[in-house]
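Submission checklist for the structure archive. All mandatory fields must be present; incomplete records are returned to the submitter.

[x] Identifier: Sigma-70 family RNA polymerase sigma factor
[x] Organism: Kribbella speibonae
[x] Residue count: 202
[x] Sequence attached
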Amino acid sequence: MTLIPIEARSGPVSEGVVHDPPPNAHRERFEQVFATHREAVLGYLRRRTDSGHDAADLLADTFLVAWRRLDDVPLDPQTRPWLYGVARRVLANHRRGEGRRHALATKLRGELSDAPPVHPLQEDTPTARAFRALPEQDRELLSLVAWEELDTGQIATVLGISRNAVRIRLHRARKRFAKLLTAPLANRTVVALTEEVSHEDA
C-alpha cells in the first residue's frame, strides 16, 4: 500500500479543516503494521518472558496500544523501535502486576494457613449438610444475608435483580433451608439465615 502525502492528494481542501483518514485507510495501515512487525515484536517479548501464553497476551496488548495510537506510529524504519518501546512498557506493567500478585498471594497464604474456618457451615454438621444441599442460588442469597450482612437493596445490586425479586427469592430460600434442617437447635449462623434481613431499606 502506498501512502500519499497530503500535499499530493487531489481535490479541494477547506482552509483550516483537518480531514481524518477514512476508516478503511486507518484499518489498512494497522494491518500493514501488524503483518510487518508482528513476528519481531513477538520475538522481543518471548525473549523476555517465561511463558508463550504471556508473550501472546503481551503482544495483543502492545498492538492494542498501536491501534489506539495509530496516528502516533511513525513510518518505517522507525515503526519497529516505536513498537518495541510500547512492548517494553507493557512488559514492565505486566511484571509489576505479577510482583504485586505474588507478594499478595504469599502474604495471604501465611495469614490463611493458621486461620479458622471462614464459617461454621464448612463443618460436617447437620446444619452444614442442609446448607450444602441447597441450590447454589439459594446458598449465595443466604450467604449474602448472614455472612456479608447485606440488606435487600445491596443484595439486589450484587445479583443484578430488583429488591422485590430479592425478597421473593429470599423467602423461598429460607423455606427450602428450613425443610432441610434436621437438627432441633440452630446455631447463630442458622438463626441469622432464617431471620428476616434486620436492616431492610426504608
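[x] Structure attached
Curator remark: The radius of gyration is 29 Å. The chain has two domains: 22-112, 120-194.
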